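Replying to the earlier thread about multi-chain prediction with a worked example.

Input:
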Amino acid sequence: MTTFLVLTVVVLLAVALWQLTKIFDLTQVGSGNVNDTQIANDNDNKVNGFLMFAFLGFIYLTTILCLLYYSDLPLIGDSASEHGPEVDRLMVISLVLIFIVQTVTQALLHYFAFKYRGRQGQKALYFADNNKLEFIWSIIPAVVLAGLILYGLYAWTNIMFVDEKDEQDAIVIELYAQQFKWEARYAGADNVLGKANVRYIEGVNNLGVDLSDPNAQDDFTAAELHIPKGKRVIFKMRSQDVLHSAYMPHFRAQMNCVPGMVTSFSFVPTLTTAEMREKPAIIQKVANINAIRAKKSEELVAKGQTALDPYTFDYLLLCNKICGASHYNMQMKIVVDSPEDFKNWLKENSPKTIVQAVKTAAAEAKASEESATQQPKDSAAAPAADTTVVAQAEMKQ
Amino acid sequence: MSAVAHNHDHGHDAHEHHHKDTFITKYIFSIDHKMISKQYLITGIIMGIIGVGMSMLFRMQLAWPEESFKVFSFFLGERMAPGGVMNNETYLALVTIHGTIMVFFVLTAGLSGTFSNLLIPLQIGARDMASGFLNMVSYWLFFLSSVVMVISLFVESGPASAGWTIYPPLSALPQAMSGSGAGMTLWLVSMAIFIASSLLGSLNYIVTVINLRTKGMSMTRLPLTVWAFFITAIIGVISFPVLLSAALMLIMDRSFGTSFFLSDIYIAGEVLHYQGGSPVLFEHLFWFLGHPEVYIVLLPALGITSEVIATNSRKPIFGYRAMIMSIIAIAFLSTIVWGHHMFISGMNPFLGSVFTFTTLLIAIPSAVKAFNYITTLWKGNLQLNPAMLFSIGLVSTFITGGLTGIILGDSTLDINVHDTYFVVAHFHLVMGISALYGMFAGIYHWFPKMFGRMLNKNLGYVHFWVTAVCAYGVFFPMHFIGMAGLPRRYYTNTNFPLFDDLQNVNVIITTFALVGGVFQLVFIYNFFSSIFYGKRTVQNPWKSNTLEWTAPIEHIHGNWPGEIPHVHRWPYDYSKPGHDEDFVPQNVPMKEGEQQLHH
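Result:
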């Protein structure tokens, strides 16, 4: 409803402005050659020249406002990976450079537009070219960019190419994407992921792991991504249907998941979830968000709806490549554990291997089949293998 | 189609002809480049209204997620917005079609089609395009593709919704989303027709510029507009066929069971037969067009700006040759940077470093252009007509938007801002708004040439200032929500408490977007009413040097009644010492002893 009101106001404003310009036109009737009336005269030049200057003020004001609200770089919060600070440093350097160039060039552009606004009788300077100037403003960007390119390439190479020694110490985790959820597959004690292909997908083996592969025997899956602090994690990404992108903004990490191939990204987490929650920037962000949520909850409760849960910080894995209708809600919680906690978590979860789950499911199916033959009319005993299919169908809704 | 109705409009009074025209040959199947340019412009404007209107609708969803609005029920209907609440598939459909329409139908065909057609023959001194017939076919193919695209909006399963980049497998599999059914088929058909249209147009422009220049019009005396259109046409011819091949392969994958882009897919409970293809291949093919496309959109706008800024500054454009060289450098580089859209696509990271290098190089010719524009203003006698304001606005948004390209072109930084609102802010400013400003500048400047009447300048001023404020208001804050990690193409952010503190920014952005969008009506009104009721123009209202202003106001076949004017000088002799007037048209012979003062 408010939007309607706003729109109405806007339309009325437009009408008023239109009338104003019409009046403007009427005042100009009879002033000289009729054909000149729609060409800028000294008065137009003056008014618009001043407006140009004012517009510079507007640009600066927007910039200042944004800096006031968003000067606490990086905006997403402290980086929680080893390579993160490098990315952030390059980002800040680039932003500062951009800020300087933007401030100076916009000032020149708008100031000139104001200063040299046309006046009757004023003659422009015939200044067609100057090779020295052209040289200067080719060479300065070239030098600055050369610096940025070198720094960027250095950082990129460090991030994307992991040397062999680091690779051996790392743990390997598969991130498996499908419309619209994430799953993680851990390589188990051998630290080698078993082979997998969508053609092996059957029942509880919903990641399509090749169960005959010796490396697959100890693989297990989790719906929550646990990673240890201080140890390199190599992610192997797969997708079973469309493109997805594994976006972990707090770790400055992102890689697409492509059906038909395995992509990879790796980083070393440096802050556990608990430590990150203690960071002043995050504390402030969470408090701010909770204030907003509390206010929203009041409104909701007043309408008779349930209040929102208060927010506690967690690392997230988001999908950042359009993947279908529910793309906007494809996420997984990431937990960075201390090495000891991670060990405990592994101990607890690693026995639940995929192979074991398949065996259990088969046994259950067999049992229910037997009971079904005893009571042929019991239709509730659907084979467990169908659950994924049903879940898929539901998700498509 | 309403576009047809508008094409019937009598833009100017009837006048004498060298031979008799029927209504149909004059207004519909015209082979006259001036009429074809008007057809392009009006079709482009109508598509623009659809495209901008869609953005206003999805901006409302982003500011007030999942709220019910009567406008939604009115425009989208009960199926796409049940109970007035836009659903998630509709949101994606709107985003997709908004992108497609704005990039291809408005800023490629509407901008390039209009002004290449109008200005190339008139500014080089030619009677018409090299092939009037091809030109007509080109327009009608464009029209047909627009019709198909608009029809796709009414398909039961919804229009294409996989984003304007239509990455498979999402776009290839109807099981993946409902918009990938008949809607996507129509999208592909429409684009295939569009590309055919664009290729015919481009070939025609190239041939015309090379062969039909009047006596004395050497390549180094061409106005920068023509240089920009010429180079644009060349990149179009190089890159559009690649998109056509991608579209055809996608059609094969979708309908005939091939596996160019698909492999190992399990969806909706079954394994599909596709084996061996790769979506990354599609990304390569798409961006091999997709990136040059940015310059296909932008270069004509920059060409128009060069001309408008020089004329209205009453000064020669600064560094004419440097401008030409930077256009050529940008065009060349634009064909070898496409990989910067794919740093994290899964391609070899080494390629990422190559593309970072080539991408950041583009900043050099771009910087040269920006500084040359600023220097052109210096010590000028600026006539701040609406066209001039839009041109200055273009330089402003080109700088603001271009600078953030330094961040996105850097593979390291792209990791964390890829596909966030930072990208949306960047490309809207540098190519969307800039090209749109170029288009507006062109319309305000050459409206008298097209329709023999003037646009109302005061409405033009209102249009510019509101648009300028709103454009910054919409896209400046987007950089910051992008840096805070907000992904684009999310129907709503309410599932992420992490982003709750960005919601008020979304409301601000949407408010600016709605105001800015509604104020385009000022332009629409000005445009259509001035066609009929605008003040009559004089032959050369802006006191410009280029040849189009030596042609009579009333349009005739062959452009000039007698002989085509000969050219004796470059187009930028504004305020040249030794002349009484502050402009010397290109067809004025050099005075005795007059020196050429530029290089």
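Residues 377-397 of chain A have pLDDT under 50 and may be disordered.

Feel free to reuse this layout for your own posts.
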